[in-house]
Task: structure prediction
Amino acid sequence: MAAAAQARAYAEADFSESNAMFVEIFRAHWGDAPASGRVLDLGCGPADIPIRIAQAFPEIRIDAVDGSESMLRCAREAVAKAGLGERINLFRRRLPDERLEMASYSGVICNSLLHHLAEPDDLWKTITRCAGLGAVVVVMDLIRPDDEAAVDRLVEAYAAEAPEVLRQDFRASLCAAYTLQEVEAQLQASGLLQLRPKRVSDRHWAVAGRLAA
Ligand SMILES: C[S@@+](CC[C@H](N)C(=O)[O-])C[C@H]1O[C@@H](n2cnc3c(N)ncnc32)[C@H](O)[C@@H]1O
Result:
């Protein structure tokens, strides 16, 4: 995902359906009333989700981080185009990174990063350390299908017309993703006992809730 062409292809792809779903899951926990707060987005990619959240919640400021400079370049362009440079700060950070633990956020969000990490606990530890008491946490990712035929079906259903680089990325991501049971075990092991993964589409799980105050 680090190569410039790959990042550009990802930034230009249409993830509006799943990104809109992510924002609705966030809304269900954050609430609709104006509430100011600082939200951290881990692995923000081209920043479509932080832009949607900043547009939907005018009181929120967002720190969005990603490990890839190519992705951040796409994110900076998108944030500037949306006129949100004052409310979305973009930083280069590759998890695990101790500098991320120096702030306490009222929300921590993360879409499609977990399956990229060599050590999944790096995500859950970062969330535990960055989320303040009562923080809203929303994490979403792909569900690993049961077999190769199910992978093929999803690639054809959602990436039939996509550039080859994106088809390959989607296939690799599905194969690298975790099952709900595996995510549940990760949450138990990291002490995030109040969060449970739920299937939210034919290919996604989400973990969402407020950390106990
Ligand atoms: C599939 S993209 C998802 C991007 C974005 N969250 C979205 O929903 O569109 C995964 C992103 O995670 C980033 N990434 C991968 N490993 C990372 C790490 N260890 N720390 C920070 N970002 C990472 C990649 O650069 C990429 O932008």
